[in-house]
Amino acid sequence: MLCKNCQTKFLLESDFCYNCGAKVIRNRLTLKNLINDFSEQFLNYDNKFLQTFIHLFTKPESVIDGYIRGTRKRYVNVISYFAIAITITGLEYFIVRSFHPEFLDLSAISTKGTEAFTNNILKFVQDYHSIVLMLFVPLYALMSKIVFFNINKYNYTEHLVAFMYIIAQLTILGAFIVVFSALVGLKMGNISFYVMLMQITFSAYCLKRLYQLSFKGIVLRTLFFLLILLVFYVIAIIVTMVIMFATGGTEVFKEMIEAQRAAQ
Hints:
The protein has helices at residues 31-43, 48-58, 60-69, 78-99, 115-127, 129-147, 156-183, 188-211, 215-246, 250-263. The protein has one domain. The chain has 10 helices and no strands. The longest helix has 32 residues, at 215-246. The radius of gyration is 23 Å and the shape is globular. It has 264 residues and is an all-alpha fold.
Protein backbone atom coordinates (compact mmCIF):
# COMPACT_ATOMS: atom_id res chain seq x y z
CA MET A 1 0.00 0.00 0.00
CA LEU A 2 1.30 3.46 -0.90
CA CYS A 3 1.00 6.64 1.15
CA LYS A 4 -1.18 9.13 -0.74
CA ASN A 5 0.98 12.01 0.48
CA CYS A 6 4.58 10.87 -0.07
CA GLN A 7 4.11 7.64 -2.07
CA THR A 8 6.04 5.60 0.51
CA LYS A 9 5.13 1.90 0.72
CA PHE A 10 3.87 0.70 4.12
CA LEU A 11 2.02 -2.25 5.65
CA LEU A 12 -1.69 -2.65 4.91
CA GLU A 13 -2.63 -2.58 8.62
CA SER A 14 -0.69 0.63 9.32
CA ASP A 15 -2.67 3.63 10.60
CA PHE A 16 0.07 6.18 9.89
CA CYS A 17 2.80 6.53 7.28
CA TYR A 18 6.17 5.92 8.96
CA ASN A 19 7.87 8.32 6.52
CA CYS A 20 5.74 11.49 6.64
CA GLY A 21 3.44 10.69 9.60
CA ALA A 22 0.23 11.20 7.61
CA LYS A 23 -2.88 9.40 8.82
CA VAL A 24 -4.06 6.59 6.55
CA ILE A 25 -7.52 7.35 5.16
CA ARG A 26 -9.48 4.29 4.07
CA ASN A 27 -13.07 5.57 4.01
CA ARG A 28 -14.73 7.86 1.48
CA LEU A 29 -15.25 11.47 2.51
CA THR A 30 -18.64 12.06 4.15
CA LEU A 31 -20.15 14.95 6.07
CA LYS A 32 -19.68 13.03 9.32
CA ASN A 33 -16.01 12.39 8.53
CA LEU A 34 -15.53 16.04 7.65
CA ILE A 35 -17.05 17.18 10.95
CA ASN A 36 -14.97 14.65 12.90
CA ASP A 37 -11.80 15.77 11.13
CA PHE A 38 -12.56 19.43 11.90
CA SER A 39 -13.20 18.53 15.54
CA GLU A 40 -9.91 16.66 15.80
CA GLN A 41 -7.97 19.45 14.16
CA PHE A 42 -9.42 22.49 15.94
CA LEU A 43 -11.65 21.60 18.92
CA ASN A 44 -9.84 19.00 21.01
CA TYR A 45 -7.77 20.20 23.94
CA ASP A 46 -4.59 18.59 22.62
CA ASN A 47 -4.90 20.55 19.40
CA LYS A 48 -1.91 22.78 18.65
CA PHE A 49 -4.07 25.82 17.93
CA LEU A 50 -5.94 25.65 21.24
CA GLN A 51 -2.72 24.92 23.11
CA THR A 52 -1.06 27.91 21.48
CA PHE A 53 -4.03 30.20 22.16
CA ILE A 54 -4.35 29.14 25.81
CA HIS A 55 -0.63 29.12 26.60
CA LEU A 56 -0.09 32.58 25.11
CA PHE A 57 -2.28 33.75 27.99
CA THR A 58 -0.99 31.47 30.72
CA LYS A 59 2.71 31.10 29.83
CA PRO A 60 3.61 33.20 26.76
CA GLU A 61 7.32 32.64 27.33
CA SER A 62 6.79 28.92 26.70
CA VAL A 63 5.30 29.63 23.26
CA ILE A 64 7.42 32.60 22.14
CA ASP A 65 10.77 31.85 23.76
CA GLY A 66 10.28 28.17 23.03
CA TYR A 67 9.91 28.89 19.32
CA ILE A 68 12.92 31.19 19.35
CA ARG A 69 15.04 28.53 21.11
CA GLY A 70 13.98 25.80 18.70
CA THR A 71 10.91 24.11 20.25
CA ARG A 72 8.66 24.22 17.17
CA LYS A 73 6.47 21.11 17.29
CA ARG A 74 4.50 21.78 20.46
CA TYR A 75 2.69 24.90 19.21
CA VAL A 76 1.47 26.39 15.94
CA ASN A 77 4.45 28.01 14.24
CA VAL A 78 4.47 31.79 14.20
CA ILE A 79 3.76 32.24 10.46
CA SER A 80 0.76 29.90 10.51
CA TYR A 81 -0.63 31.50 13.68
CA PHE A 82 -0.36 34.95 12.14
CA ALA A 83 -2.07 33.71 8.97
CA ILE A 84 -4.92 32.25 11.06
CA ALA A 85 -5.32 35.62 12.79
CA ILE A 86 -5.56 37.45 9.45
CA THR A 87 -8.18 34.95 8.24
CA ILE A 88 -10.27 35.37 11.41
CA THR A 89 -10.06 39.16 11.08
CA GLY A 90 -11.34 38.97 7.51
CA LEU A 91 -14.29 36.90 8.72
CA GLU A 92 -14.89 39.39 11.54
CA TYR A 93 -15.04 42.35 9.12
CA PHE A 94 -17.39 40.44 6.83
CA ILE A 95 -19.80 39.67 9.67
CA VAL A 96 -19.76 43.22 11.04
CA ARG A 97 -20.09 44.96 7.68
CA SER A 98 -22.82 42.60 6.46
CA PHE A 99 -24.98 42.32 9.57
CA HIS A 100 -23.99 45.10 12.00
CA PRO A 101 -22.61 48.08 10.00
CA GLU A 102 -23.77 50.45 12.74
CA PHE A 103 -21.06 48.98 14.99
CA LEU A 104 -18.40 50.79 12.93
CA ASP A 105 -19.59 54.20 14.13
CA LEU A 106 -16.72 56.04 15.84
CA SER A 107 -18.61 59.20 16.74
CA ALA A 108 -18.25 58.39 20.46
CA ILE A 109 -14.51 59.07 20.27
CA SER A 110 -14.55 61.76 17.56
CA THR A 111 -14.68 65.48 18.10
CA LYS A 112 -17.45 67.39 16.37
CA GLY A 113 -16.64 67.81 12.71
CA THR A 114 -14.06 65.02 12.53
CA GLU A 115 -16.46 62.05 12.39
CA ALA A 116 -16.13 61.64 8.62
CA PHE A 117 -12.34 61.78 8.79
CA THR A 118 -12.17 59.23 11.64
CA ASN A 119 -14.58 56.85 9.93
CA ASN A 120 -12.65 57.11 6.66
CA ILE A 121 -9.42 56.18 8.44
CA LEU A 122 -11.24 53.18 9.95
CA LYS A 123 -12.51 52.14 6.51
CA PHE A 124 -8.99 52.48 5.09
CA VAL A 125 -7.59 50.25 7.87
CA GLN A 126 -10.33 47.65 7.32
CA ASP A 127 -9.86 47.59 3.54
CA TYR A 128 -6.14 46.93 3.97
CA HIS A 129 -6.20 45.14 7.32
CA SER A 130 -3.80 42.38 6.24
CA ILE A 131 -1.19 44.90 5.10
CA VAL A 132 -1.74 47.03 8.21
CA LEU A 133 -1.21 44.04 10.52
CA MET A 134 1.95 43.02 8.66
CA LEU A 135 3.29 46.58 8.92
CA PHE A 136 2.60 46.69 12.65
CA VAL A 137 4.89 43.71 13.31
CA PRO A 138 8.23 45.23 12.17
CA LEU A 139 7.21 48.58 13.65
CA TYR A 140 6.43 47.18 17.11
CA ALA A 141 9.50 44.95 16.95
CA LEU A 142 11.65 48.01 16.27
CA MET A 143 10.01 49.92 19.12
CA SER A 144 10.50 46.98 21.46
CA LYS A 145 14.14 46.69 20.48
CA ILE A 146 14.57 50.40 21.29
CA VAL A 147 12.79 50.02 24.65
CA PHE A 148 15.00 47.06 25.62
CA PHE A 149 18.18 48.60 24.19
CA ASN A 150 20.20 47.71 27.30
CA ILE A 151 19.12 44.05 27.43
CA ASN A 152 20.58 41.94 24.64
CA LYS A 153 18.47 38.85 25.24
CA TYR A 154 16.75 38.96 21.83
CA ASN A 155 17.83 40.32 18.46
CA TYR A 156 15.52 42.20 16.09
CA THR A 157 14.37 39.06 14.26
CA GLU A 158 13.43 37.45 17.57
CA HIS A 159 11.45 40.57 18.46
CA LEU A 160 9.63 40.07 15.14
CA VAL A 161 8.66 36.56 16.23
CA ALA A 162 7.48 37.81 19.62
CA PHE A 163 5.24 40.48 18.13
CA MET A 164 3.89 38.21 15.42
CA TYR A 165 2.60 35.96 18.19
CA ILE A 166 1.41 38.90 20.33
CA ILE A 167 -0.40 40.71 17.50
CA ALA A 168 -1.91 37.48 16.22
CA GLN A 169 -3.22 36.66 19.70
CA LEU A 170 -4.66 40.15 20.16
CA THR A 171 -6.22 40.01 16.69
CA ILE A 172 -7.95 36.69 17.37
CA LEU A 173 -9.17 37.81 20.79
CA GLY A 174 -10.23 41.20 19.39
CA ALA A 175 -12.28 39.53 16.65
CA PHE A 176 -14.38 37.70 19.25
CA ILE A 177 -14.79 40.89 21.29
CA VAL A 178 -15.86 42.89 18.24
CA VAL A 179 -18.43 40.33 17.06
CA PHE A 180 -19.85 39.91 20.57
CA SER A 181 -20.03 43.70 21.08
CA ALA A 182 -21.82 44.12 17.75
CA LEU A 183 -24.33 41.42 18.70
CA VAL A 184 -25.22 43.13 21.99
CA GLY A 185 -25.63 46.54 20.34
CA LEU A 186 -22.40 48.30 21.31
CA LYS A 187 -20.42 50.45 18.88
CA MET A 188 -16.72 50.52 18.19
CA GLY A 189 -16.43 53.96 19.75
CA ASN A 190 -17.77 52.52 23.03
CA ILE A 191 -15.21 49.74 23.32
CA SER A 192 -12.14 51.19 21.55
CA PHE A 193 -10.56 52.50 24.77
CA TYR A 194 -10.94 49.16 26.55
CA VAL A 195 -9.60 47.25 23.53
CA MET A 196 -6.56 49.54 23.41
CA LEU A 197 -6.01 49.07 27.16
CA MET A 198 -6.23 45.30 26.69
CA GLN A 199 -3.66 45.43 23.87
CA ILE A 200 -1.20 47.45 25.95
CA THR A 201 -1.69 45.27 29.03
CA PHE A 202 -1.30 41.97 27.18
CA SER A 203 1.79 43.16 25.27
CA ALA A 204 3.38 44.35 28.52
CA TYR A 205 2.49 41.06 30.22
CA CYS A 206 4.15 39.00 27.46
CA LEU A 207 7.30 41.14 27.48
CA LYS A 208 7.44 41.01 31.27
CA ARG A 209 7.38 37.20 31.16
CA LEU A 210 9.91 37.05 28.32
CA TYR A 211 12.37 39.39 30.02
CA GLN A 212 11.53 38.33 33.59
CA LEU A 213 11.05 41.92 34.70
CA SER A 214 9.65 43.29 37.94
CA PHE A 215 6.31 45.10 37.97
CA LYS A 216 8.08 48.46 38.27
CA GLY A 217 10.45 47.54 35.45
CA ILE A 218 7.70 46.68 32.98
CA VAL A 219 5.66 49.77 33.91
CA LEU A 220 8.60 52.08 33.16
CA ARG A 221 9.38 50.34 29.89
CA THR A 222 5.69 50.38 28.90
CA LEU A 223 5.61 54.15 29.41
CA PHE A 224 8.74 54.44 27.27
CA PHE A 225 7.08 52.23 24.65
CA LEU A 226 3.96 54.44 24.63
CA LEU A 227 6.08 57.55 24.20
CA ILE A 228 7.75 56.03 21.15
CA LEU A 229 4.34 54.85 19.92
CA LEU A 230 3.01 58.40 20.14
CA VAL A 231 5.83 59.64 17.91
CA PHE A 232 5.17 56.90 15.36
CA TYR A 233 1.42 57.53 15.60
CA VAL A 234 1.85 61.17 14.63
CA ILE A 235 4.04 60.13 11.71
CA ALA A 236 1.44 57.52 10.67
CA ILE A 237 -1.36 60.12 10.73
CA ILE A 238 0.68 62.41 8.51
CA VAL A 239 1.45 59.58 6.08
CA THR A 240 -2.23 58.54 6.03
CA MET A 241 -3.32 62.09 5.27
CA VAL A 242 -0.80 62.30 2.43
CA ILE A 243 -2.06 58.99 1.00
CA MET A 244 -5.69 60.13 1.27
CA PHE A 245 -4.86 63.38 -0.49
CA ALA A 246 -3.00 61.47 -3.21
CA THR A 247 -5.92 59.08 -3.74
CA GLY A 248 -8.61 61.76 -3.93
CA GLY A 249 -9.55 62.00 -0.29
CA THR A 250 -9.49 65.81 -0.20
CA GLU A 251 -13.29 65.95 -0.04
CA VAL A 252 -13.18 64.37 3.41
CA PHE A 253 -10.94 67.16 4.72
CA LYS A 254 -13.17 69.82 3.14
CA GLU A 255 -16.23 68.31 4.83
CA MET A 256 -14.37 68.13 8.15
CA ILE A 257 -13.30 71.79 7.95
CA GLU A 258 -16.82 72.91 6.98
CA ALA A 259 -18.34 70.89 9.83
CA GLN A 260 -15.95 72.46 12.34
CA ARG A 261 -16.77 75.94 11.04
CA ALA A 262 -20.47 75.21 11.35
CA ALA A 263 -19.98 73.97 14.90
CA GLN A 264 -18.16 77.19 15.82
